[in-house]
Structure formats: C-alpha cells, structure tokens
Design goal:
By secondary structure, this protein is mainly α. 54% of the residues lie in helices and 3% in strands. The chain is built from 15 helices and 2 strands. α5 runs antiparallel to α11 and α10 crosses α11.
Length: 351
Amino acid sequence: MAVFYLFVRTHHSLQPPTLPSSAPNSTAGPVLEEDNTEALVHHYLNLSPNLTELYEQWSEADANFKKKAARFAGVRVLRQDAWEALVGFICSSNNNIIRISQMMDKLCVHYGPLIGYIGSVPYHDMPRPSVLADSKVEGHLRQLGFGYRAKYLYQTAILVSQEHESWLDSLRNPESPVLGQKPFPAGEMQSQGREGYRAAHEKLLALQGVGPKVADCVCLMGLGWGEAVPVDTHVWQIAQRDYKFGKGKHSSLTKATYDAVGDRFRSLWGKEAGWAHSTLFAADLRVFSERLSTKTEVTEIKHEEADLSREIDTQLITKPRIKREFEESDSKVGPSSETRTTPRVKRRRKG
C-alpha cells in the first residue's frame, strides 16, 4: 500500500514545478537551508540496506523464497512517517488501493497544511492528530465517504493527541530512526521479535481500528520494526500453500495461528522477516503474477516459433528428397500415392 500511496501523492500533475530564477536577488535575504531532498528520498525509499545480500540470506534459509523471489528483485519496504502509516492502514480496512489513496488525499486536502503548488495544483501535508481530534471531524469524514473508518480515525486522533507529540516515534526501532538521527542497537532478536517490537505492537492495539494486522503494518512500515509480519487472508493462503499451515491446531487463522505464522517467518528470515514476507506477498499478487506469466508465455512462444522455424527449414530441405523417392518408386511399382485407382475384378461366367 505504501508504494501505491507514494505514487498517488505525486501523480496529480505531469507539469514540472516552477523553478526559482537563477538570477541573484537584489535584496539580501536569509541564507537558505541546505537542500536535503536527496537524503530524504534515499531515507524514505529505504535504499541503505544491501538488497542483494538480504535476498541471498533469505534464499539460503528458504527454498521457496529462492524459487519465487529471484523474479521479483528490488522490492523495498518504505520508511513512512509513523502517523501517516497509522492513518493509511486504518483506512485500508476492507478497502482497495484506489479508495485508500483517495481517502488519504481527502484528508490532506481538507485538513492538512498547504505545502505549495506544482503548476496550479495545490499539495497539502498530512494533518496532525490534534487537527483530526476535533468533534466535527467524524461527521465530515463520513460525508467524504470514509464510512465506519471515520469513527476510528477520530477516536485514534484523540488518543494520539492526548499523548506527547512524538509518542508514536517513541515506539520506533532505534536501529531505524527518523531522518537525521543516529541509529542505536535494538536488542537481541527472539522468535517473537525483539522486545521493543512486541511493546510497540501491544501499545498500538489500544488504538481504535487497530487489530494485529494493522499494528504489524504500522510497526513494519511506520516504525521500522523489520520483524513485524502482517498476516492477512492473502498471506494466510501463502502460509497454507507453501509452509504447511492449515492443519491441526493451525487449521484456521486464529490469534494463536497468526502469531505462529509470524514466528515461523521470523525463524526463517530473521529481523527483516517482514521485508522478505512482503516480497513473497508481491510475487503472489495477481497483477504481478499475471505480468510474470505473460512474460513467460511470450518467451515460450518465441521458443516455439524458433522450433517451428527450424522444423520448416528441415521440411524444406527434406521434401525434394521425399518426392524423388516417390517418383522412383512410381516408375517401378505403379501410380503415386496422390493418384487412386480401383482395380478391376474379373467375374466368372455361370454355366
């Protein structure tokens, strides 16, 4: 969802932004801060980890990952703002990418501060929790088409705004800090994840509209806890098909089974299990699997065309030889195979 949201927040206009004049100002003004756009994009797209090494590590530990993930190289988990991730995943409940993106855009347009314009298109930032904690927000969001999610967003905004401003970021993995801060060790990895991850997950569950899956999504994409493994019905299908779940005490997706699936993936892939799981999730999505099968079919067709071409060439070479053989046999035996004759049968006379 985070990747699609990034696209939606930037695709409104294809016009390039209006750049400032390169001519020096006639009046002296304040010195502009250093442009950190490149660092921001690098951080947001999570480009620091060596993805090749991670894929090799996950492939060595898991034959199924090795089989499928090689065709989906380059999948990365974004480092989203924690509040933005929380709001986005509350909106994702029983929803699709297009509607989620529309809801996020409406929140920004109606409640977020104006950042600037690209051409004539205005761009707004995410509204802070205190803004969405207003008593009129829930009713207005329902009018905007948020449905039951309006109540969850309003009540969660109240709970978060009652805490200190950086409460969500205090739940963050210290090894994956916000831009500009130094990383610190996050503790020893265990089968259920590091202690900080488990604490963050538990505190998120106290918010309205946040269940185990949404809490894990926020931990993974908003708080940097790489071992968080969100298990929805799609991941549950992968677990049943490829990792022998769906039998015995784990025959259905209960809370115990949810935890068991996460523990299983963490035991395979380590503290970036959520990243590896997201790669398999992407590989299993219809939109990607269809593209992959289309490429495979095209390749197979090309091979078939090449084989057919070679077969035709062989036929063109051997056909005259076959024809001469028929001609030689015709001169000795009789009519060719293309000519049919009916032999005469002599009848005996009666008498």
